[in-house]
Amino acid sequence: MRLVLVGQSLTTYPYGVRGSVAFAALLLSGITVAACAQIEGLSGFSKGHCSGGGDCDASAVDGTAEGGEEGGTDGTVDVSTDQGHEAGPTVCDGGVACGSTCCVGQACVGGTCTGVCAPGQTQCSGDTVQQCGSDGQWTNQTTCSGATPVCNSGQCVACSPGAVQCTGNGVERCSSQGTWGTPQQCTNQTCVGGACTGVCAPDQTQCQGNGVQTCTATGNWGTPVPCTNGACTGGVEAGDAQCSGTCTPGATQCSGNAVQTCDMTGHWGTPSACTNQACVNGACTGVCTPGSAQCQGNGVETCDMNGAWGAPAACMSQTCISGSCTGQCAPGQTNCSANAPQTCNANGTWTSGNPCSSMTCVSGACTGVCAPGQTECLGNNIQSCTATGTWQTQTTCSGATPACLNSSCVACSPGTSQCVGNSSQSCAANGSWNTPVGCVSQTCLGGLCTGQCAPGQTRCNGNGVQQCDPTTGQWGMTTACTSSTCSGGQCTGSCSPGMVQCSGNVIQTCSGGTWTNSTDCTTTSQTCNGGMCIGSCAPSQTECQGNTAYSCTSSGTWGNPTNCTTTSTTCVSGVCSGQCAPGQTNCSGSTPQTCSSTGTWTNQATCMQPNPDCSAGACTCLETTCSGQCVNTQTNTGNCGACGNVCSASHETGVTCSGGNCGYTCASGYADCNTANHNLGGCACPAASASTQGTVGGCCGSSCQTQHKNGVGGYYYDCVALSTYNQTQATEAATSDTAQAGSIFTGECGTAPNIQYAVFKSVDTTGSTGTCTGWVYQASGTYNGVNLAQTVGTTYASSGNCGNNDCGCYCSLLTTPNWN
Residue 654's beta-bridge partner residues? Predict the structure, then answer.
């Protein structure tokens, strides 16, 4: 079909695969495009427009095709009008004619296209159906709800195309017309949110362990519900998993003394008997069968319900044999028959032993210290043997017969004795008393004469009286004689032997109870105190200690000190006297004075140089004393600035001391560089003595100049380190060579890389023989086998015909440096 654009002549426009698909689709589908608005936006065309007369223009973006037929195979579409056709009535194919205009997608109101839609059109706004009015504006009509809650293509439908939902356990999908399709059932899954999900279907059950799991609304297995006293049986497909039976699989219980085990169906199996054990809580346990018995020691053990042996029940006066008590006695039991012991044997019967000798059979054993019926004496008691083999007192001897002899009461025990007054009486062998014997200078005690004295005796012990103790026969405590003397066993006199006292300054001693003069302490310059000479002085004595006066105290020591110095006096014979104190000095004009030992001033030698002034009693130097001499350290060259600071005089022609610092006039060839430490070093630095040797008298700061050899027996000085080789150093060495006349210039021998540089000094006598000396400062390479670098620092003197200011100059091949 041809595209007709009334009132406009167009050529055929091509369209290609790129950018013209939409337009080609319109032509091939048989749709007639009759207005500019419908051409706008088609791929491959630029925006068209309608003129006031209804003409419609369109231009191709992709270029113009020549010829071609509609629907041709060359890829073009024929869009044309009859050439020269005049404008006629407006034809709107798909639009609304509005005067001379086509309204497409708008309403014609008053001959003008207006609004946003064509009257009668419908559309959706959310879930609301809108319809276009005659004014070209949308108006809400119906809100979709109930069975048709969704707006689709301008009408209410049941669902949105492509939406899904669950119906039962099946998935329903909404068709393109907005209706629900047939549900598709979920197999072993659950429909959730319009999709099959999870691992199970609703209400399905399965066994998990011994519990039942039920499928949840999300299609997942829920938490297992344990089967209590039952077993989980059944499968997932049938959905019949459930708890059944009467026990939990694997559980056990006791049936009598046998164990039953629950099978997988929840039923109890055949009992299995416990051998030498007890069934407890469904398991064989313990070490015995309940109700069985055995012997433990001499007791019977019975097995309890837990298969454990109970506490032994002792057999009383019987023996345990094969788990029961039998016989007449228990093993280890003993008994007495007459005075012989019996022992129970392993069969529970008695076996007799040997009769007891000098002992008594008690509880089947010989014991005690005697046999029944025996008697003896114990002290003054008569004893008889009891039924337990022990002695028991029957009679206590007393009165006239207080002693026991051969189980009878007698007067005394043979060998014993007693006191009668101060006499001793002994007992005869028959138990009667012998005649008493008197004690001499002893005391009768316990029937025997003992001790050192008789009752009532006294004696002197030291200067005390002792009395005899009648209870021991020994001398008792000594009673001292106070202020008296013991004589003949009694105290007498007015003093005790060894006592001393002072009478004045004389010692008195006691002799025979009377006082006698002994020693006069004054003769030893001591004091009598407590009956003895003590201290180091006698009463009323005085003495001097240093310049302090002391007097003797009552204890014989020096006390009551008086410092004579505080009164400017001297202690003489223990008394402060005189005009001055020892050690004090004084000046009398220019004469020093010292205090004598008697407290008087004594003149010394009058002060003279080097200490001409008297001050505080001594000759004093007003300057500084150095080695006993009074000097001015600001001007003295032997003590410049301080004692012992001697200004140097090694290389000086003049030395001074000013302000405590040395000053020098240095000899030729020396310089004073280091002025530290009062400039004591002097002219210690060798220096240039002529300008040819460097700076005359020069220094390198506070250090000496470096002394360089010039290689020809002389020196030059500067502040450059030794072994520094360059043109400047070579020139200084040449300048210092005063023996070689002539001018100085720089020359070289050879060509690079075998080359040598030197400074030369030569006599310019053109046309005749001259002399020349060279100083090598740089070289490299070799010459005739000589490493030229080793010639640096050497000098070489030569002679020859002169010319060009280098008369007789030759390069050195020496390898031992001799300058700098």
Answer: 665
Dist CA 424 CA 445 (whole Å): 8
Instruction: Note the pTM of the prediction, 2 decimals.
Output: 0.30
Quote the CA–CA distance of 589 and 610 in Å, as a whole number. 17
CB atoms within 10 A of CB 786: 17
Extract the tokens encoding 709: 């050899």
- Residue 463 structure tokens: 């200067």
pLDDT digits (tens, 9 = 90+) for 302-359: 999 998 999 999 998 899 988 889 988 988 889 988 888 999 988 888 888 889 988 9
CA 364 to chain centre: 77
* Separation CA 801–CA 640 (nearest Å): 63
d(CA 626, CA 818): 51
- Per-residue DSSP letters for 750-773? EETTEEEEEEEEE---TTSEEEEE
CB-based contacts of 92, cutoff 8 Å, min separation 6: 34, 35, 102, 103, 104
Q: By the 8 A CB rule, do 752 and 788 touch?
A: no
3-state class of 36 per DSSP? helix
- Token pair of 409, please? 């009461």
Over residues 368-418, the pLDDT tens digits come to 999 888 889 998 999 999 988 899 999 999 998 999 998 889 999 998 999
CA distances from 50 to 34, 90, 98 (A): 11, 12, 14
pLDDT at 550 over 70: yes
- Contact residues for 527 (Cβ-Cβ < 8 A; gap 6+): 505, 521, 533, 534, 535, 537, 538, 539, 552, 554, 555, 556
Cα–Cα distance for residue pair 710/717, rounded to 1 Å = 10
Cis peptide before 161 (omega within 30 of 0): no
Q: Which residues, other chains included, contact 560 with Cβ-Cβ below 8 Å and sequence gap of 6+?
A: 550, 551, 553
How far is it, in rounded angstroms, from Cα 498 to Cα 109?
170
Contact yes or no for 369/383 (Cβ under 8 A): no
| HSE toward the beta carbon, residue 408, CA cutoff 13 A | 5
Residue 736, helix vs strand vs coil: helix
Q: Residues with Cβ < 8 Å from 505, sequence gap 6 or more?
A: 520, 521, 522, 527, 528, 538, 539
Spatial separation of the C-alpha atoms in residues 454 and 439, rounded to whole Å: 8
Chain centroid to Cα 500, Å, comes to 79
Q: In sequence order, which ranges of 386-489 are alpha helices (DSSP H)?
A: none
Cα distance between residue 334 and residue 364, in whole Å: 4
- Token pair belonging to 796: 């070489």
Strands 155-157 and 150-152 come out as antiparallel
- What is the per-residue pLDDT for 171? 93
Query: Following DSSP, what letter does each residue of 412-439 receive, concatenated?
Result: S-TT-EEEETTEEEEB-TTS-B---EE-
**Cβ partners under 8 Å of residue 136, min gap 6:** 106, 107, 109, 114, 115, 116, 117, 118, 119
What are the φ/ψ torsions at residue 733 (nearest 5 degrees)?
A: -65, -40
- Tell me the pLDDT band of 628, cut-offs 50, 70 and 90: confident
From CA 171, how far away is CA 320, in angstroms rounded? 88
Computed over its alpha carbons, how large is the radius of gyration of the chain? 79
Tokens of 328: 């007449």
* Pair of tokens at residue 125: 């706004």
Contact 169, 186 (CB under 8 A): yes
Look-up of token digits 């014991």: 367
Peptide bond into 592 cis (omega under 30): no
What gap in Å lies between CA 46 and CA 613, rounded to an integer? 134
